[in-house]
């Protein structure tokens, strides 16, 4: 009865418009004062122990900060250009590209609202201009933006891992296949609708444009490698990965993309020399990046630094010869043939050798697939991007009427100038108003989220003190509840709760309640976590407190209820996806179990 009163107070306070965090904390405190034998001192002790014992929560402010820099620094625009170049030529391609852009940005931000703001502010206007209805555009982005908490890294996954003491690394791996599947299902749905309604399609812009946009977006996309590669390579913990990601995002936004800060508007190449110096800049720039990457690798593995200089020198020699050949071939109309031959030699042949080595080895089929994908991304993609970026540079050089040697001089000169500017403005960039504004916005979001979590922890303390999880477990097991029925109940609770509460606060409350029952019924804790995250996705696009609905309404300048109606057709897809994730456990457990082993629960 007392617990019913507690939850009744929470619901009543939410119904009259009290903020979620205050409703949780106030209800729990009143319950402790009036209906419980526990003292308020126990709340302080519980909060201190909860925060001190869950260092993974430190990852949240850093992931929020990295997302803020990436959202402000123009990364989303470059990712959208890349997505359009890949798939914008099919029927409904701009909408499908919007979903792909949301998936890629989700792998950088870990936040659904940030994904909707960053991608939606550009794609929705572009779709309307291209002939799509605003309702369709808003519905697509509102639903695709939910992938921000499913595709790793994810702030909600960090909260679940902290609340249940499971591995953040396993949670991140578990979100890969469901995240890709959800995005694919949305894309297929859009394509079918586009074929039926004869929605517009763009024109194929060629492989040169594809690789050029990959190059533009690569600095932002490399953040995925920094985060996930660092975690699963054993270089740093998830919390350390989040901190490094925020620093990397700051550097990319301020000093490389220069979309904010004191260098905003200062291009790496002056407008008057943009065509002439692009080819040379790419030769020298790729060489510098090669040296930096090898230097980092030598430092981490304890290899002599001369190896990095030797690798960069070899790369520079090949780059100079290849750029010269392409610069001569482009005016003669043979640029693509030379580029294709170079990709064949430096990309395709090494990739085929690696694939052959993998196929003839005695490893599990999943490792074979992962290694083949890795061979494509590591051995084929970088040479292709470099070679076709040289083709684009040679084409711009032909337009300028300059020569190859002159392009090298102009490109090298501007690379030195730009890096000198980076050094000079390094300190002012930290104190620039754009940096302060980004830090302030990230701080506000962090405080809001942590305040909700802190108050949810008070409620968790009350529930634990009253032994509610144990009582619920006993009742459900005594009633003969099986895994299937239990998961149905969990989904119903989360779907209803997700309509009224912020995802992180709801997970902190519900996870400790359902977690012991799931363990007793033999449900994998990682599988349970992904189910909860998917339910939170749906909660973010269902009224009255669906956060993505409010964000989309503001971005698209549409009434709230109009956004709700626009999102409904795609919401049905997410419900089908929820059923699949709930009752096909290997979608969530295959990758973490294969690479890290099963989650072991010790208490």
UniProtKB/TrEMBL annotation:
The chain crosses the membrane at residues 47-70, 82-106, 112-128, 140-160, 172-194, 214-235, 241-258, 279-300, 306-326, 338-359, 365-391, 445-463, 475-497, 504-523, 529-551, 563-586. It is found in: Cell inner membrane. The keyword Transmembrane helix applies. One of its GO terms (biological process) is C4-dicarboxylate transport. Its main location: membrane. Keywords: Cell inner membrane, Cell membrane, Membrane, Transmembrane, Transmembrane helix, Transport. One of its GO terms (cellular component) is plasma membrane. This is TRAP transporter large permease protein.
């Amino acid at each position: 009865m007392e617990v019913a009163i507690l939850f009744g107070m929470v619901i009543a306070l939410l119904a009259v418009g009290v903020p979620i965090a205050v409703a949780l904390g106030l209800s729990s405190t009143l319950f402790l004062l009036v209906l419980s034998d526990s003292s308020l001192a126990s709340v302080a002790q519980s909060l201190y122990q909860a925060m001190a014992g869950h260092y993974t929560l430190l990852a949240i402010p850093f992931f929020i900060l990295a997302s803020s820099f990436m959202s402000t620094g123009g990364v989303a625009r470059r990712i959208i250009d890349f997505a359009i170049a890949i798939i914008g030529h099919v029927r409904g391609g701009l909408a499908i590209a919007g979903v792909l852009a949301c998936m890629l940005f989700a792998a950088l931000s870990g936040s659904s609202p940030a994904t909707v703001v960053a991608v939606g502010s550009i794609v929705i206007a572009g779709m309307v201009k291209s002939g799509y209805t605003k309702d369709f555009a808003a519905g697509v982005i509102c639903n695709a933006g939910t992938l921000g908490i499913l595709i790793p890294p994810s702030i909600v996954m960090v909260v679940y891992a902290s609340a249940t003491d499971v591995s953040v690394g396993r949670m991140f791996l578990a979100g890969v296949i469901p995240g890709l599947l959800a995005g694919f299902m949305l894309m297929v749905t859009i394509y079918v609708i586009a074929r039926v309604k004869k929605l517009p399609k763009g024109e194929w812009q060629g492989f040169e444009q594809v690789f050029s946009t990959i190059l533009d977006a690569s600095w932002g996309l490399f953040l995925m490698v920094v985060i996930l590669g660092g975690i699963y390579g054993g270089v740093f913990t998830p919390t350390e990965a989040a901190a490094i990601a925020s620093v990397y995002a700051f550097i990319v936004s301020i000093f490389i993309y220069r979309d904010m800060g004191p260098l905003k508007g200062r291009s790496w190449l002056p407008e008057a020399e943009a065509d002439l110096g692009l080819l040379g800049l790419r030769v020298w720039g790729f060489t510098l990046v090669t040296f930096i990457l090898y230097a980092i690798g030598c430092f981490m593995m304890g290899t002599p630094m001369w190896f990095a200089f030797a690798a960069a020198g070899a790369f520079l020699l090949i780059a100079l010869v290849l750029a010269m050949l392409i610069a001569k071939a482009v005016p003669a109309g043979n640029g693509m043939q030379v580029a294709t031959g170079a990709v064949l030699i430096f990309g395709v042949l090494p990739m085929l050798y690696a694939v052959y080595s993998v196929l003839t080895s005695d490893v599990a089929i999943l490792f074979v697939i992962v290694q083949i994908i890795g061979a494509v991304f590591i051995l084929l993609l970088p040479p292709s991007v470099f070679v076709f970026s040289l083709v684009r540079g040679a084409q711009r050089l032909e337009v300028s009427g300059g020569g190859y040697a002159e392009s090298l001089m102009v490109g090298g000169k501007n690379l030195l100038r730009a890096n000198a500017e980076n050094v000079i403005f390094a300190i002012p960039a930290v104190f620039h108003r754009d940096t302060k504004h980004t830090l302030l916005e990230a701080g506000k979001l962090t405080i809001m989220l942590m305040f909700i979590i802190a108050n949810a922890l008070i409620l968790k303390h009350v529930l634990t003190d009253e032994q509610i999880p144990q009582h619920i477990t006993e009742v459900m097991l005594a009633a003969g509840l099986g895994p299937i029925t239990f998961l149905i109940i969990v989904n119903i609770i989360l779907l209803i709760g997700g309509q009224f509460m912020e995802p992180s606060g709801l997970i902190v409350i519900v996870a400790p309640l359902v977690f012991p029952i799931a363990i007793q019924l033999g449900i994998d804790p990682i599988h349970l976590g992904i189910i909860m995250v998917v339910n939170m996705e749906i909660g973010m696009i269902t009224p009255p407190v669906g956060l993505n609905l409010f964000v989309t309404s503001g971005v698209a300048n549409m009434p709230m209820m109009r956004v709700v109606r626009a999102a409904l057709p795609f919401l049905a897809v997410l419900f089908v996806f929820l059923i699949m994730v709930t009752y096909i456990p290997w979608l969530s457990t295959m990758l973490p179990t294969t690479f890290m082993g099963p989650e072991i629960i010790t208490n």
